[in-house]
Write a structure and sequence with these properties.
This protein has seven helices and eleven strands. The chain is an alpha/beta fold. It has one domain: Metallo-dependent phosphatases (Purple Acid Phosphatase, chain A, domain 2, 4-Layer Sandwich). It has a six-stranded mixed sheet. It has a five-stranded mixed sheet with strand order 1-11-2-3-4, with helices on one face. The longest helix is centred in the N-terminal third of the chain and has 29 residues.
């Protein structure tokens, strides 16, 4: 039999649990926690040397959640991993309005320049990096202020271009953003050119494709050994492997983690920051590591 005292205790417990969950989701997980998530992928067609890739996605910089101090901590953590290559998957710009102080890319790029990898650091842009550059929006294309800041600090930005890591025997291809231009006739317009990008590859060595949004994966040919994406933040709220809201037309199919379809591999990073709302629950901000090897 439920007594009044038992009911009040249960109600109080429920209220306190709700308050703690809200505190955790809005202040602790998005601003204070950081993990390294590792995925190990073995492929028969991986003819290159074993490769350790450290991935950073969706910083969405802005105080109090992701400021310069936080970025320095992340850079130090990534460097300690001693990766072969570091790949930045875009969305450096703030993704929500709940920030107490804006942090410009001109302040963040020199910090990212301290990233160290044996075979280099490479970047692509995300949709927010294009949306935040109003002049680029008016032009309908580059130059983009985020790309300029990164390149001025020694970080190549791959915009529908490729680069060969000769010592490793692997190609890195960078796809331009698929949602780059807003308020266009017919809706958003991408600047991505998958076919033209892959056409630049000159031999049969493995290809790693950097694509900010994972939706392109359905069009990626078998020629590409690994596709790396961000954008979704794992849905920001994820319970028992399911996210109620995912910014992808494929929903939870490409929300987070390692996906293998028809022999093709995709890894979607949970990223660091937030968009729309500064909330994370069950999707701890992460540095993503992918270790590639021959089966």
């Amino acid at each position: 039999m439920t007594t009044r005292r038992t009911f009040i205790k249960g109600l109080l417990g429920t209220v306190l649990a709700g308050l703690f969950s809200g505190l955790y989701a809005f202040f602790i997980e998005p601003a204070l926690r950081l993990r390294v998530q590792t995925w190990r992928i073995a492929r028969k067609d991986w003819t290159a040397k074993p490769l350790k890739i450290a991935i950073l996605s969706d910083l969405h910089v802005g105080e109090p959640f992701v400021g310069p101090r936080r970025i320095r901590q992340i850079v130090a953590r990534m460097n300690a991993l001693n990766p072969d290559v570091i790949l930045l998957l875009g969305d450096y710009a703030a993704g929500h309005r709940f920030i107490t102080k804006s942090v410009e890319i001109a302040e963040i790029a020199p910090i990212l320049a301290d990233l160290k990898a044996k075979h280099g650091v490479f970047a692509v842009l995300g949709n927010h990096d294009w949306w935040d550059d109003l002049n680029a929006q008016k032009r309908g294309g580059g130059p983009n202020l985020y790309a300029q800041a990164l390149e001025a600090n020694g970080i190549p930005v791959l915009s529908n271009t490729v680069i060969k890591l000769e010592d490793l025997g692997v190609w890195i291809a960078g796809l331009e953003d698929q949602l780059a231009l807003i308020r266009r006739p017919g809706g958003q317009k991408g600047l991505d050119d998958l076919e033209g990008t892959l056409a630049q590859i000159a031999d049969d060595d493995p290809v790693i494709l950097m694509a900010h949004e994972p939706d392109i994966f359905t069009k990626v040919p078998d020629r590409v050994a690994l596709t790396l994406s961000g954008h979704t933040h794992g849905g920001q709220v994820r319970l028992f492997g399911w996210s109620p809201i995912v910014p992808s037309r494929f929903g939870n199919r490409y929300a987070y983690g390692h996906v293998r379809e028809a022999g093709r591999d995709l890894v979607v990073s949970g990223g660091i920051g937030c968009s729309i709302m500064p909330v994370r629950f069950g999707v701890v901000p992460e540095i993503t590591v992918v270790e590639m090897a021959h089966v």
